[in-house]
Every structure is written in structure tokens, then in C-alpha cells.
Amino acid sequence: MWPYGSMKPEDGPARMGHEFIGIVEDTGPEVTTLNRGDLVVAPFALSDNTCQFCREGLHTSCTHPQAGFWDGEADEGGQAEAVRVPLADGTLVKLPVEADSALIPSLLTLSDVFGTGYHAAVAGGVTPRTRVTVIGDGAVGLLAVMSAKRLGAEQIILMGRHQARTDLGREFGATDVVSARGEEGIEAVRELTGGHGTHVVLEAVGTMSAYQQALGIVRRGGVISRVGVPQYEDAPVGFGSLFRHNIRLAGGPAPVRAYIEELMPDILDRTIEPGKVFDATTGLDGVPAGYQDMADRKALKVLINP
Fold first, then answer.
1. Are 57 and 262 in contact (CB under 8 A)?
2. Beta bridge partners of 249
3. Residues β-bridged to residue 252
4. What is the largest CA-CA distance in the chain?
5. Is residue 163 packed enough to be buried (19+ CB in 10 Å), middle (13-18) or exposed (0-12)?
6. Phi–psi pair at 158, nearest 5 degrees
7. Of the candidates 43, 104, 60, 123, which has an alpha carbon nearest to the alpha carbon of residue 274?
8. By the number of CB atoms within 10 A of the CB, which of 35, 78, 163, 244 ranks highest?
9. Is 241 exposed, middle or buried, given 0-12, 13-18 or 19+ CB atoms closer than 10 A?
10. Whole-structure pTM over 0.85, yes or no?
11. Measuring CA to CA, which residue among 134, 171, 139 is closest to residue 156?
């Protein structure tokens, strides 16, 4: 949504989309693990899955010359009839279901939003002894709630202002909801935590105001884990903000490829249903209107059936 918000009509149309499931129609001569007819999910980052960083679970830092993000691939995008996938052996993951499976919406979240929410929780060090605040009631924030619940967090406070979304957040595991923002929101979270704040803050927005809110909420010795793409370069990290009370800053672009095999079984056995974040469906012709609906908060996340 950040690139969409910065576009101007006079710039003309653009191919977009970095979350997709598809059927392999053809493969190049160097592809060895995939065949025509395979149903696959594509992470939002291209990687070879073999370099030292990939082996360490950091696929978003893959050193292969063709590695990178879908948004950097000229004339490509997942919201299309077809897409060419570089580094297919490393990037794509086979799915053990049919293309018409009812699990497709949930499996699609493995390409980004579920893996990103999970990365926030993992990078933040969420455990059964952890109190967590999630800032943002978009798809990533809601699935960060699900992820914190999966990791056993004892208290999960969701900060959001849209009741349909926060109701889904409660279904996913939120124990409390705070609709206020700024100082009022910070005070509300502190009241819920005995005045101390939470051990971990999962920041799924990316604005400076969200970061400042996280600073006000995090407990001494705690962690702010950011997965909302920062819309700023400079932020308070000095003595009075982070250093004085041993607050750590974590997060980053989620290496979702590293989490797919871990998270998929819970989807396949229907233990969880992250696909509930999709609350609207459209065809390719409806993509522009779908973006507008998400920007206007009329839709949480739109599923596209080409």
C-alpha cells in the first residue's frame, strides 16, 4: 500500500503484486525441482535458497545476483495472468493441495503477511512468558497476533481502530484491544500491564508515529520488532530512547521462505486459518478498485482470482 499511496495518475498503470500462488506452465533448462503442473507459492523475495545467508534463514539478504524483491523486477508482478520467476528452484515452494482447495487463501498468506507477522514475533523473542503489544490492525498486524498466540504469549494487546479487524484479532488470539493512539493509547497499554508496558512490541505500520508509540509502550529491557516498512530514515535510538533502559530494536524484511515449511502444517491440518484476513475477492479487472478499497479501509485484504 505504500507504493500505491505514492503513485500519481499521470504516471500511468503499473504491474504490481508480490504475493501469489500459481501453477507451473513451463520451466527453463536450469530448473531441476519443479515440473509443469506443480502448484507453488512464491515468497515476496527472490532467493537461491543455497547461499550462506539463505542457509542461515535470511533469504531477504540472498547474495545471488538475481536475488531481490518482486517490486524490483521490471515488468513483472504477481497480479497477472502469468509471471516469470527467476531462481525458481530456490524461490518457489510446492503446495500439497489441488488448485481448487479451500485452503488456498490461507496458503497464500505464506507468501508474505503470515510469514511477516511471524517474523516480527520471532525477531522480538516472543515466548510463553511474554506480554506483547501489536501496533496495526492490517493483515500483517492481525497475523502477528496469530503468531504471538502460536508462540504462547500470555497477553496480546492489539492496537487498532476498526472493529471488524479487531474482532478478527480477538479470534486470532488478542486478549485486549486498545483503540486509542498516541499518548492516550500508550497510557491505556500501561494500565493493562501494571504500568510497565509489554516485553515485546510488534510494529506493523511503518510510520514515525507508530515507532514513537512503540517507544512509549515497550517495557524496560524489552524489544521493538518492526516489520512495517519504515517511512523514515532517522528515529530515536540514543540514550534517552533505547540505550538507557536496554531496549532493543529488531525486525526487518521478513525472510518468509525460511518459515513456509514450519507454518504450512498448521494450515494443512486446519489448526489455524490465516486466510480469514481476505475479506473481499475480485478478478484482474477489479485490481485498481481493490487497491482503492484497501486504501479507504473498505477492505482489509483483497484476494484476486485471475
1. no
2. 224
3. none
4. 61
5. exposed
6. -100, 125
7. 104
8. 78
9. middle
10. yes
11. 134
Kindly list the distances between the CA atom of residue 37 and the CA atoms of 24, 34, 40, 95, 101, in Å, as whole numbers in the listed order: 5, 9, 9, 11, 15
Where does residue 3 rank: exposed (0-12), middle (13-18), buried (19+ CB within 10 A)?
exposed
Long-range contacts (CB closer than 8 Å, 24 or more residues apart) made by 56-60:
57/255, 57/258, 58/255, 58/258, 59/255, 59/256, 59/257, 59/258, 60/252, 60/253, 60/254, 60/255
User: CA separation (Å) from 206 to 1, 10, 162, 214, 297?
Assistant: 11, 27, 18, 11, 17
CA 144/CA 299 separation, integer angstroms: 19
CA 174 to chain centre: 17
The whole-angstrom separation of Cα 299 and Cα 306 is 19
pLDDT number for residue 4: 83
Residue 159: strand pairing partners: 135, 178
Amino acid, res. 40: V
Q: How many CB atoms lie within 10 A of CB 212?
A: 16
Report whether 278 contacts 290 (CB < 8 A): no
| pLDDT (0 to 100) of residue 168 | 98
In sequence order, which ranges of 35-178 are alpha helices (DSSP H)? 52-55, 88-91, 104-108, 113-124, 139-150, 163-172
Q: What is the pLDDT of residue 108?
A: 98
Q: Is the dihedral of CA 275, 280, 283, 288 positive or negative?
A: negative
* Cβ atoms within 10 Å, residue 182: 11
CB 127 within 8 A of CB 147: no
Tens-place pLDDT, residues 219-253? 999 999 999 999 999 999 999 999 999 999 999 99
